Every structure is written in structure tokens, then in C-alpha cells.
């Protein structure tokens, strides 16, 4: 096996990484049956240190964006769909039908009087649930 | 009406395949479609993937003092609902970020393939997300090369593979790929991906399922737990469709008759509680009581035996004393835990009394007859049912009226409360008038409170109207209803319910409301443009000629392409977008979920192509971890430029980025 030395770390770091990993490695071997095809000494280079940390997609993208890419390079972050230019349509929260009205008290959309009666009898957690589902539950305003 | 039932499909664990010598010695490539929903794995020589499993694992939570449970991967998870909150996936949206989980998944794949050599000595062809960030690829390459020692890796994009597999001419076209976390619109121009004009919409099957799940839970809060994500998924896969004209479809559904004809009714599993006859219930209760008596008797017997044993020991000690063996006696006394010799007779007396008591109890229990013959009296017995026919009728009528009175009172109270809540009603005007009158401070003789009636004014200005739905009233109401249920057959027929009626889910508009998210992300608060708008945006990036070419060859793939109506909807949307009488043709992949794997397998069978399109370990070490060899089904590759503020030795792990610990849970 080629001794793994990521270009990422300078020698100090690499040594540190090695040191940190020794106890963890043995522990891993103890409590998990390692398949035979797996390299027993392998450690993810990105998880140096005691805590295994993984970058979230957000962090990866933030990092990717910070690099000086040549102009017009397609990247994960710049092929995101554009925002909608059409005004969003209103649909009744409880029935899904097209809604003309908004209940000023609960802020729910409704399409006819029957639905209004139902809306008024809904408990507050259900109302909050519908609003959250629509992304309209703003606890401040 | 038919009642549908949830099938609750169970998965069966994947079998372990044997590692045949023919495969072992010929370097057969392994084809992996690493999708964010399902993962499909197989040798390049087989007809269809050997394993298809959910790309996730369940890791039991660590608890102190308890042994860790086994980690379950993919199809090992027989009941996914039981471990829903412990599910972990390597994906963050459609990108692999958590390589440790990916490692477990690879372990699962390779061990099921039967590999038993030191390294995985097979070329790998694996799919990655469209425009996968270089960082993510570097992690994946590192894992495969360093951990498993694979000879080479070929990365491909699933949607492009699927397009190549099924598209008719396959040179210029527009791919619409509906995945689990995202939907891509990718133009292919003269055989090459035009990544610059591609767009990704962050809505996929996952969002549609969660939306539907939540909708149903809010509609039926009682069945919160019974409406599971797996059932919702089943509902989506088997009963949902995309509306061709959403508003038109909604209008149809707002008609009562249409609703009744097209509603689908799902019966949730339930256990009927009233299936036992009173006789059976009584029997059961008696049985329970008998068992309890038996247990008590046994306990008494045990206690008796124990006490007798102790008594015998003590008597033996006393015998020692009588025989004059002083030293042994002392030792035995202290062994027994007694303080002094004087305690011995006292102790013997105590135990003898206890034994006597227990014996008496046993005798008493045996002689007394069945003690639970008396049934708890029903409340109904309080009401004397009149004997005569006429009397009975009027009595029932009276009970009925009483019940209605209570209900009416309640309704009035409720009305009053809601009137009071608003400011512009007559009731609240009246209230304010009274309050201001009371508050008016008149110097002259203030005799308020001299008469008792004066205080009634406070009842009038109370928001509740002076009294509330009291507990006593509710009890009375229940009692009356019980009486009516018992004696008035017509009362029953009013509110009679078929068994299980309360456990039925009526699913109507929801069936096309959830998939509509793809076209109207605003429905769940997402600000991105809908799929139709994104297609329009992409097409607008080209000149008229090219846009025409693209709309003549639209190809839909990905799991959601299985939804019926999607094709017609896309055609309808394109007709709106494109100029009048433009030629539009839309094709849906024959097997949207598997065609990418098939194409990858076919390409892997061409060993010389695979060799020229793969990254070897040398490439990996020389050209950087993130290196990707471009080919006809791969992502475009641009090597990451060095960061602007270059730090000694840092190439792609800039220390300026603070890494946080992340745990991804699939909900």
C-alpha cells in the first residue's frame, strides 16, 4: 500500500493526525467486524482529529464559491434554478382548491363558506401546521 | 365504494452472492448507480442489478449500559418505520458528503457481492450527481482507491446515461431528470452536455412525499402515527398522478358528484374494540380475577413455606441451647443475625404468629365463594325506565329534549363567545356600553350593590357570558346519550358508523396536489421557479433554431417519471412556452429508474472504452484527488483553481473554512 499522505497536510499535521488516529483505529477494529477487502489502516483524510467531521453541502458550496474560477465555469451553485417570475397562486390550505379568500384571524386560505366554518374550528397546532407547510408561518409577524 | 388497503411492502434482505472464479479472475467491472433514493449494484456481466436497496443505513442510538445494536444497511432494514429516526444517509441533497456512511454502504455492497480478497480488484463505474462539486468527488475517489484499493474508477452522470440508453437519435435534446432531491434540466447539444445552460430545481420525490405526508397528517391528526412515510411513498407511487391542467382538474374536483366518484378511500388497519359481546367481556373479567386469586394463593403458600423453614432453623438453635452446647449456640445465634440469646424466643413467637395468620388467610380464601360475582353497576340503572308503552315513549322523548337543551345552551354560549371576540358585534357594543356605565364615577348617591340584582351586571359583561361548558354538564350529556343509545333505536341510527369508518383516509385532491409541487414550488414556500418555468428559461438561452431542435427531443427520466400524466403535462407546458405550431415531442424513459444502470453496464462491457474513460490510482495521485476524466457521459471537469489567499501547503483544504460536525438524518 502506498503510504497515504494527503497533499493537504504539512508534515506536522500529518504526524498529529497519525497520533490521534491510533487509539480510534484500534477501537474501530474492536467493535466492528471489518470486511476483508477493506484496508484496515485507512482513515478519511478529511476527518483528522478526534471528532469525525464532515462538511455539509452548504460548506462545500461556500468553499467552492470562494475559489477564483475562470469566468462562466458551470458549478453546482450556479446552475440553481432562477426564482419564479410568476405571482404564486393561492390554493385553499385544507382542500387544495383554488382559494379566493384569506381568513384574517388564522391567515389560512379558503375557497368557500363551508371551508371557512371548518377553518374556524381548527385547533391552533393544525393551523400552524398548514401555515408551516406553505412556508408562511412567521412567528414574528 | 371500494376500500383500498396499504400493502406495506416488506423488503427481503439481500442475499450474499458467491464470488465466482470467472468473475474474480477476469476483473469484471462493478456497476454502481449511487442514487440518492435507491442504490443499484451489479456486475457488468449480469442482466439486471443484483441488488437494489434504499441508499441509507440505520444506526441504533448509543445508550449507556446497553450493548450497541447492529447497524443495518439498505435492505437489511425490514421495517423502516421502526428505525425512521435513526436513518442516516451519505447524501446532503443530491451530493455525497458523508463518506463514512458511504463507506458502510460500500462494505455492504462488496460483501454481498461475495468479494473475499484483500482488495476490491475490479474496475468501478459509479454514477455521481450532475455538477458534483470537486470536493465531493475527491472524497469518493479517496475512499475507493485508498480504502478498497480499486484499480480504476469511471464517473458517469445518471440522467445522461439514461438519455443515451433510450433516446432515439441521442445527439441533441433536452433531458428532464426528476430525482429524489432535485430535478435537472440538461440540454445536450451535438452529443455534449451544455452545463452552462443547465439548471437544477431543488425539488424532487423527497419533497413531494414529505408534502403529501404532512398534508394527510394535518387532515387526519388522529392517525398521525398511522400515516407513515412509507405508506405515503406507496400512495405516491401507486395512486398519484400529475394533472395535465391543474386548475381545470381542481374545478372538476370541487363538484360533489365528481368528488364522490373519484375519491379513493384507504382503510387503515384497526382493531375493533366492541367486537366482544358483554357475555365475553364478563367471562374475560372473571378469568382475570381467577388468575389474580391464584397468584395470591401461591404467594401465601410460598410465604408460609419460608416462615416454616425459618422456624425450624430457630427451633434447631434452641435445641442446641437445651443440649448445653454453649459455644455452638452462640455462633449459630450470631450467624442468624440476632443480637442476643434473649431475642431467640421472641423471634420464634413472632414467626409462629405469622404462620398462624397466613394459615387463617388461606382457609378464609378457600372457603369464601367467588368474590367477584358482583358486577359494577351501570350508570344507566340510575334512570328508572317506565313500564308502560306510552310512558316509555314520553320518557324517551323527555330525555331527548333534555339532551337537545344542553346542546342548544352550548351553541348559544359558543356563539356569544365568538361574538365577544370581535369588536363590531352588537353583543360586544352592549358590553362596552355597560362597562362604561359602570365606570362612570358619579358623586351623587352611589347605591350600587344594595340590591342583589345589581351584581348581575357582571354576568352580562363577562366574556364567557357568566358560565362555561362545565364538567357536570358534559357528564350529564354523556349520561343522557348513553340512555338514548340503550333505549332509543332511532337515536342509534343517526350516528351509526360502520366499523373502521373512523380509520379511513379519503384521498382526493391530494393525489395530484402533491406532484404539482414540481410545477408550483410556491405551494410549499419555495421561491424557485417551477419546472415549466425552468424549461422556458433554459430554452430562452438559445437561439430560435436550437430551441426548436431541443423541444423536438425532450426526454424525461428519473423515478418521478413513473408518475402518470407527467408526459402530457410537459407537452402542455411546452405548447404554451413555444411559439404557435412549434413541433414538440416528449419521450419518457421506458424504465426511468433503471435505464441509467443498464447503460452504465453496457458501457462497462466495452473494456477498452472503460479503460480510456477511467481514473487510475496513478491519475488520482498525480492529477489531484478531485480529478475526473471526461467522456461522453461524464460531468464536465474544471480543476479547482488555487485559492486567492494561498496558504502554504493548502490546496483544497483551506483552513479558513471552519468545518462543523454534521449528522444527516433522513426524516
Automatic annotation (TrEMBL), chain A:
InterPro entries: INO80C/Ies6 (IPR029525), Vps72/YL1_C (IPR013272). Keywords: Nucleus, Transcription, Transcription regulation. The keyword Nucleus applies. Residues 90-119 form the Vps72/YL1 C-terminal domain. GO terms for biological process: chromatin remodeling. One of its GO terms (cellular component) is Ino80 complex. Its main location: nucleus. It is found in: Nucleus. The keyword Transcription regulation applies. Residues 1-35 are annotated as: Disordered. It comes from the Eukaryota. This is Vps72/YL1 C-terminal domain-containing protein. It comes from Nezara viridula (Southern green stink bug).
Automatic annotation (TrEMBL), chain B:
InterPro entries: Actin (IPR004000), ATPase_NBD (IPR043129). Pfam families: Actin (PF00022). GO terms for biological process: regulation of macromolecule metabolic process. PANTHER family: ACTIN (PTHR11937). Belongs to the actin family. This is Actin-related protein 5. It comes from Nezara viridula.
Amino acid at each position: 500500500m502506498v503510504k497515504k499522505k494527503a497533499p493537504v497536510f504539512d508534515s506536522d499535521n500529518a504526524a498529529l493526525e497519525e497520533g490521534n488516529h491510533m487509539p480510534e483505529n484500534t477501537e474501530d477494529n474492536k467493535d466492528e467486524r471489518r470486511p476483508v477487502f477493506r484496508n484496515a489502516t485507512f482513515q478519511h483524510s478529511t476527518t483528522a482529529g478526534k471528532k469525525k467531521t464532515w462538511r455539509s453541502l452548504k460548506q462545500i458550496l461556500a468553499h467552492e464559491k470562494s475559489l477564483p474560477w475562470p469566468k462562466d465555469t458551470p458549478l453546482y451553485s450556479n446552475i440553481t434554478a432562477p426564482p419564479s417570475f410568476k405571482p404564486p397562486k393561492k390554493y385553499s390550505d385544507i382542500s387544495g382548491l383554488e382559494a379566493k379568500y384569506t381568513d384574517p384571524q388564522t391567515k389560512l386560505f379558503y375557497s368557500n363558506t363551508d371551508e371557512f366554518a371548518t377553518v374556524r374550528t381548527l385547533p391552533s397546532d393544525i393551523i400552524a401546521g398548514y401555515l408551516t407547510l406553505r412556508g408562511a408561518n412567521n412567528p414574528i409577524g | 365504494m371500494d376500500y383500498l388497503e396499504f400493502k406495506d411492502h416488506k423488503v427481503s434482505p439481500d442475499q450474499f452472492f458467491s464470488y465466482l472464479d470467472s468473475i474474480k479472475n477476469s476483473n469484471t467491472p462493478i456497476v454502481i448507480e449511487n442514487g440518492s433514493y435507491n442504490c443499484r449494484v451489479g456486475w457488468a456481466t449480469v442482466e439486471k442489478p443484483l441488488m437494489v436497496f434504499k441508499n441509507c443505513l440505520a444506526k441504533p442510538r448509543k445508550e449507556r449500559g446497553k450493548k450497541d445494536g447492529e447497524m443495518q444497511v439498505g435492505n437489511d432494514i425490514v421495517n423502516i418505520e421502526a428505525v425512521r429516526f435513526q436513518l442516516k444517509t451519505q447524501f446532503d441533497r443530491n451530493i455525497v458528503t458523508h463518506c463514512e456512511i458511504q463507506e458502510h454502504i460500500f462494505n455492504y455492497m462488496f460483501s454481498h457481492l461475495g468479494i473475499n480478497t484483500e482488495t476490491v480488484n475490479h474496475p468501478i463505474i459509479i454514477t455521481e450527481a450532475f455538477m458534483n462539486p470537486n470536493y465531493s468527488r475527491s472524497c469518493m475517489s479517496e475512499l475507493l482507491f485508498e480504502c478498497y484499493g480499486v484499480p480504476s474508477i469511471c464517473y458517469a452522470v445518471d440522467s445522461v446515461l439514461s438519455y443515451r440508453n433510450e433516446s432515439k437519435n441521442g445527439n441533441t435534446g433536452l433531458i428532464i431528470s426528476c430525482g429524489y432531491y432535485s430535478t435537472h434540466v440538461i440540454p445536450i447539444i451535438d452529443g455534449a452536455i451544455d452545463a452552462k445552460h443547465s439548471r437544477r430545481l431543488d425539488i424532487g420525490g423527497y419533497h413531494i412525499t414529505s408534502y403529501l405526508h404532512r398534508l394527510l397528517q394535518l387532515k387526519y391528526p388522529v392517525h398521525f402515527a398511522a400515516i407513515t412515510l412509507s405508506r405515503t411513498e406507496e400512495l405516491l407511487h401507486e395512486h398519484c398522478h400529475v394533472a395535465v391542467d391543474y386548475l381545470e382538474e381542481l374545478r372538476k374536483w370541487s363538484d360533489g358528484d365528481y368528488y364522490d366518484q373519484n375519491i379513493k378511500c384507504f382503510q387503515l388497519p384497526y382493531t375493533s374494540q366492541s367486537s366482544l359481546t358483554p357475555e365475553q367481556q364478563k367471562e374475560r373479567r372473571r378469568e382475570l380475577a381467577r388468575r389474580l386469586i391464584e397468584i395470591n394463593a401461591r404467594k401465601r403458600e410460598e410465604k408460609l413455606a419460608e416462615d416454616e423453614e425459618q422456624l425450624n432453623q430457630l427451633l434447631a438453635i434452641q435445641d442446641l441451647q437445651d443440649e448445653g452446647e454453649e459455644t455452638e449456640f452462640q455462633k449459630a445465634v450470631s450467624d442468624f443475625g440476632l443480637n442476643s440469646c434473649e431475642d431467640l424466643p421472641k423471634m420464634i413467637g413472632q414467626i409462629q404468629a405469622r404462620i398462624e395468620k397466613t394459615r387463617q388467610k388461606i382457609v378464609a380464601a378457600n372457603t369464601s365463594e367467588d368474590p367477584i360475582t358482583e358486577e359494577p353497576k351501570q350508570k344507566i340503572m340510575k334512570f328508572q325506565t317506565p313500564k308502560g308503552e306510552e310512558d316509555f315513549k314520553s320518557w324517551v322523548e323527555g330525555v331527548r329534549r333534555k339532551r337537545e337543551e344542553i346542546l342548544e345552551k352550548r351553541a348559544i354560549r359558543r356563539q356569544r363567545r365568538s361574538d365577544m371576540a370581535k369588536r363590531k358585534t352588537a353583543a360586544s357594543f352592549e358590553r362596552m356600553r355597560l362597562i362604561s356605565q359602570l365606570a362612570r364615577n358619579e358623586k351623587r348617591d352611589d347605591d350600587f350593590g344594595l340590591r342583589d340584582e345589581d351584581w348581575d351586571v357582571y354576568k352580562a359583561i363577562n366574556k364567557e357570558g357568566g358560565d362555561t361548558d362545565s364538567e357536570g354538564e358534559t357528564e350529564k350529556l354523556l349520561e343522557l346519550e348513553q340512555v338514548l343509545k340503550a333505549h332509543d333505536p332511532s337515536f342509534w341510527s343517526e350516528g351509526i358508523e360502520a366499523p373502521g369508518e373512523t380509520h379511513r383516509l379519503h384521498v382526493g385532491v391530494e393525489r395530484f396536489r402533491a406532484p404539482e409541487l414540481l410545477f408550483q414550488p410556491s405551494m410549499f414556500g419555495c421561491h424557485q421557479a417551477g419546472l415549466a418555468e425552468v424549461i422556458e428559461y433554459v430554452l430562452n438561452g438559445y437561439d430560435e433554431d436550437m430551441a426548436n431542435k431541443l423541444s423536438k427531443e425532450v426526454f424525461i427520466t428519473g423515478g418521478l417519471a413513473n408518475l402518470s400524466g407527467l408526459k402530457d403535462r410537459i407537452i402542455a407546458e411546452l405548447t404554451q412556452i413555444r411559439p404557435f405550431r412549434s413541433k414538440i415531442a416528449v419521450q419518457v424513459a421506458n424504465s426511468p429508474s433503471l435505464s441509467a444502470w443498464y447503460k452504465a453496464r453496457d458501457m462497462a462491457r466495452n473494456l477498452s472504452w472503460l479503460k480510456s474513460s477511467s481514473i487510475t490510482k496513478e491519475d488520482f495521485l498525480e492529477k489531484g484527488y478531485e480529478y475526473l476524466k471526461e467522456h461522453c457521459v461524464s460531468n464536465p471537469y474544471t480543476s479547482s483553481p488555487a485559492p486567492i489567499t494561498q496558504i502554504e501547503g493548502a490546496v483544497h483544504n483551506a483552513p479558513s473554512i471552519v468545518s462543523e460536525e454534521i449528522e444527516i438524518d433522513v426524516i
